[in-house]
Amino acid sequence: MRRPICIFIILLTxxxxxxxxxxxxxxxxxxxxxxxxxxxxxxxxAPFTDKRGAHPRDLGRITVPLADMNGSRLVISEDAxxxxxxxxxxxxxxxxxxxxxxxxxxxxxxAGEVRALSYSVESRDEYSIELAFSIFESGTGKAxxxxxxxxxxxxxxxVMGNSRxxxxxxxxxxxxxxxxxxxxxxxPLIHNTRASYAPAKEAATAAAPPEGTGRxxxxxxxxxxxxxxxxxxxxxxxxxxxxxxxxxxxxxxxxGYKNSGEKVSVRPRQFTEFEMEMxxx
Length: 281
Description:
Elements: H1 2-20, E1 42-45, E2 49-50, E3 58-61, E4 73-75, H2 80-94, E5 98-99, E6 108-121, E7 125-137, E8 143-155, H3 164-191, H4 198-206, E9 214-221, E10 226-229, E11 232-236, E12 239-243, E13 246-253, E14 260-266, E15 271-277
Parallel strand pairs: 1-5, 1-6, 2-6, 9-15
Antiparallel strand pairs: 3-4, 6-7, 7-8, 9-12, 10-11, 10-13, 13-14
């Protein structure tokens, strides 16, 4: 009978150690095909910084019993900043980005901050997430997009109660929702930068403009500026136009920025680039 008792003691010790140990968040988000890039681009993700002013691995209180966890604080197995970085990298990869191991050679550089990441297990589970994001063109250092996204939630544990698995799933869901809101805003701008349009630009320069025209490619910072010639609207930057030879007065308009204008000469069968850095109002 001594051997079964020894096995029972070993299993009991492992169970108690598991209950006392920190929570490992298994980040397994639901698929989201609508955020896929049409053209793959590479991005280097700098580690997030933790701006919460709290212990790096502490998320909140535990005031009700849990089946496989004890203690009065919810502590995770990695820093909150590392968890946010890992979640962001996973979402970017799922959206079609190529994750670059270094800054050199990457099309874009992404960085972020954890401004809030808390989860308390009480009569109701309550969580709060706030993440700040910034994306820059690697070659120029110009900002493509920056913003802050947040997600809050609360839920009852349910009939079966809470466990490590349910808490991990709830944290994954909250982080995924916040990050995907950011991607929904940044992806369209990624599509409209010089880095993501490089293949299209190369194709445009490889093919000569039609007979009797010249090709004008208009870039702006920020992107998606409205392009006018006189009172005629031609589209948003970046924009490629085949025009008859002559001098054209181009005006760029963008909300929050001063109108910018300049005259450009278009020559037959030639490729002309026009780039404007707009000033904030």
